[in-house]
Amino acid sequence: MYKRKAYEKLLLWKEESCGSTAMLVEGARRVGKSTLVEEFAKREYASYALIDFSKVSKEFKQLFLDTRTDLDGFFLYLSALFSVNLVPRDTLVIFDEVQLFPPAREFIKHLVTDGRYDYVETGSLISIKSNVKDILIPSEEESMKLHPMDFEEFLWAMGEDGLAQIIRASFNERRPLPDDLHRKAMRFWNEYMLVGGMPQAVAVYADKRNMDAADRAKRLVLKLYREDIDKYGESGVGRLKAIFDAIPGQLSKHEKRLVFSQVEEGGRARDYASAFAWFDEAATVNLCHACTDPSVALALSKSESAIKCYMGDVGLLATMAFSSTGDSMPEVYRHVLLGDADVNEGMLAENAVAQQFVASGHDLYFYSKWAPTAEDRMEVDFLLVKPYPDAAMKPRVSPVEVKSGKRYTTKSLDKFKLKFGKRVGERYILHPRQLAVDGDIVKLPLYMAGLL
């Protein structure tokens, strides 16, 4: 298993919970939930029992239901069926793909109260209506989201721990990397924009640097996501498919917000609320909402009608946009690897940055002001709330612009500062060039996005 930051979160849960809660690890399909949890069980417990509800028989499910009121009998059955010695306070019981058998999730309450063992659940589409119908969600359940691998985890998988470490040190000390290391980091960033962070794609690419094999792995994931829409989309299947398939086209435009009428003739924002809620639950996309009046409480002026819809993984976006069929590496991939800034106006770079922000725990917001003249228009790619050194580290709104080319202006950042004044903290530009600080504008290489 590749090193994942979520492992440390599981360690902290084990230490602080001491069996008083179960942990639910949720996220999109194929992001590595089962692999992470089983590796955690192997390393941190004397024994573990893995119950995969995508594989267990109907007989097991019935026995599970029959023994819920007899915990001693349940544990004896579990020990015998999985050939595991259950050690009090040193065994982890894993309910894998728990959304496929909701009664198991409800049973967590009684198991945690019993206190003999620790419990981790994994699931996708965990709160879709059909998966929570007629069950009581246990209050003893904590949860954490596992995302596709971020850029730092990608570097670890590629055996570049040292490069990851020096990038982090460079960010913390606000000093640029030596030029040769900067060029190396940018090469890996360009590879990351194509491969992405789905563990299967990263594994085959890390093994032989084979982009074709990575694409094949990603096409299988995309196929699975479309099958999930068919299976769980209920009455909204058509609209869900339309949004999903429209993402590359919408992101390839200069203004990357979703234009509903282009997704569906006559489409309006209010028609899509349930579809966006479904995608948010499935975690296959990252939604970025317009913020109409930016302040440190960005959610207070969140718009439900102006939305940018990024893919949850930039590698999947690359495959959808440029390599949905065929086995040979598309020519556009070569342009990306060579650092060509004009690949669909930087849609891969912006999607990759959004992915890093989400993995770091940020909600996604942007700011846009339309005006008849270009001089009065303003578009800021992302808004973050961060401590501001010039305000005694009090939180301020930090506008972030993503630049895939080396030549650009700071007009939008300047207009934003002029309009919102003291609400604004440090302003950031993420670009392919070296780190540089110019007053309150901090210019960071794209590969440092996940450190913000």
UniProtKB/TrEMBL annotation:
<dbReference type="InterPro" id="IPR025420">
    <property type="entry name" value="DUF4143"/>
</dbReference>
<feature type="domain" description="AAA">
    <location>
        <begin position="21"/>
        <end position="155"/>
    </location>
</feature>
<feature type="domain" description="DUF4143">
    <location>
        <begin position="227"/>
        <end position="405"/>
    </location>
</feature>
<keyword id="KW-0547">Nucleotide-binding</keyword>
<dbReference type="Pfam" id="PF13173">
    <property type="entry name" value="AAA_14"/>
</dbReference>
<dbReference type="Pfam" id="PF13635">
    <property type="entry name" value="DUF4143"/>
</dbReference>
<protein>
    <submittedName>
        <fullName>ATP-binding protein</fullName>
    </submittedName>
</protein>
<dbReference type="GO" id="GO:0005524">
    <property type="term" value="F:ATP binding"/>
</dbReference>
<dbReference type="InterPro" id="IPR027417">
    <property type="entry name" value="P-loop_NTPase"/>
</dbReference>
<dbReference type="InterPro" id="IPR041682">
    <property type="entry name" value="AAA_14"/>
</dbReference>
<keyword id="KW-0067">ATP-binding</keyword>
